Amino acid sequence: MIYLDHAATTPVPRAVADAMYEVLTDQFANPSAQYAAGLAMKRRLDQWRMTVAGALDCPPERLYFTSCGTEGDTWAVTAGCWQNRRLGRHIVTTAVEHSAVLEACRWMERQGYEVTYLSPDRNGAISAEAVLAAVRPDTALVSVMLVNNELGNVYPITDIARGLREKNPDTLLHTDAVQGFLKVPFSVGTLGADLVSISAHKIGGPKGIGALYIGQRLRSPRPLIPGGGQEGGLRSGTEATAQIAGFAKAVELRQARLSEQLAHLAHIREYAAQQLSAIPDLELIGGGAPHILAASLVGWPSQNIVNDLSAQGICISAGSACHRGKPSHVVAALHLPKRTAGSVIRLSFGPETTEADIDACTEALRRHHDERMPML
Q1: Which terminus of the chain is more solvent-facing, meaning fewer CB atoms within 10 Å of its CB: N or C?
Q2: Residues 228 and 282 in one domain
Q3: Dist. CA 217–CA 287, nearest whole Å
Q4: What pLDDT digit, counting tens, does each position of 38-50 carry?
Q5: Strand pairing class (172-176; 195-199)
Q6: Are residues 296 and 174 in the same domain?
């Protein structure tokens, strides 16, 4: 199998699986237990938190484990609005956010909030100026993702944060950094966001675990789950120690060779862009992050392409995630011509991706173009 869908999820290295297996079997104690094994697990949990927090360059006490990026996004939006409930009931976000953010914003609309959804340009770009222009005195929260999961565009979070401090310093800033974590170098200090959500399974960790950085400007964050007081009393429930162990090990492995891996990803993306650009009727779309390449084989339906390549053992995704013939909300927000929008595909890469993988995918796409008639 040739796997070119790392933006969807990533393979788990053996070392990550082994770390999880040890916690599931030999080191299974509850970190809240007060006997020796429980206290030892609490110390390990603290160390794993320090590892993940270290990758964000944030204090470990400001990092809270969640079940996934979606949970982190939902918590960030609702907690940010709660913190600023006296400031106003207005949210600024983008039309190309992950559904986790968009659905949380729609839920807040049902609670009486007004949401401004900013559209990108044809290439998926959104400027800091456009975001700041939408901010009002009653804007409680701005939520803009760091890296777009379908297009790969990198958004100017640092510039947005700086502009907010000047225009409306009480407005909080959240960024969904799930696709940017250990793919686009950043720290929470330089980024300037008050809330940052990440996920393990995009970097070689297990599914079912993520984290949310909650900055010090959220003085008394609203708890996501009340109960026994775990995660600083903000997200109660026995900690998922095996998943957290896997998360920390995945972070360790990525950080050990981060500069080398980022250079490799950038090379692979550039190589893929060059190879795919030689296919007739193919247009590249968006871009910026080193691990995501979106393109349209104009006129050939994206789901047909995905199915054809899948039959050949090549895994890519449909950037146009068809539902009743409609493109994804991200592609729709670009306002592309119908034939272009209906043909968007996404290739995404990992440290294991090779030029030979790209060559095989390119040849399969060329055959699909040559052997099948356009249908759009």
Answers
A1: N
A2: no
A3: 32
A4: 999 999 999 999 9
A5: parallel
A6: no
CA distance 276 to 273: 5
Residue 198's domain spans which residues?
A: 14-256
Is residue 147 assigned to a domain? yes
Same domain, 297 and 242: no
How far apart CA 353 and CA 350 sit, in angstroms, is 5
Measured between alpha carbons, how far is 181 from 197 in angstroms, rounded to an integer?
Answer: 9
Residue 374, pLDDT score: 80
Is the pLDDT reported for residue 325 higher than 70? no
Long-range pairs for 226-229: beta carbons < 8 A, 24 or more residues apart: 228/32
Which residues lie closer than 8 Å to 325 by C-beta, 6 or more apart?
A: none
327 pLDDT higher than 90 = no
Q: What values do phi and psi take at 210, rounded to 5? A: -150, -165
- Does 229 share its domain with 246? yes
Strands 63-66, 210-214: pairing is antiparallel
CA-CA-CA-CA torsion sign (298, 149, 251, 21) = negative
Could you read off the pLDDT of 290-324 as tens digits, one per residue?
999 999 999 999 999 999 999 999 999 996 444 44
Residues 221 and 363 in one domain: no
CA distance 294 to 302: 11
Give the distance from CA 46 to its chain's centroid: 24
Phi, psi of 308 (to 5 degrees): -65, -45
Cα dihedral 202, 203, 208, 210 sign: negative
Instruction: Mark whether 307 and 270 lie in a shared domain.
Output: yes
User: Looking at 68, 81, 105, 322, which residue is catalytic?
Assistant: 322
Question: Strand 314-315 and strand 282-285: pairing?
Answer: unpaired
322 tagged catalytic: yes
State the total domains in the chain: 2
What CATH number has the domain bearing residue 30? Answer: 3.40.640.10
Are residues 295 and 284 both part of a single domain?
yes
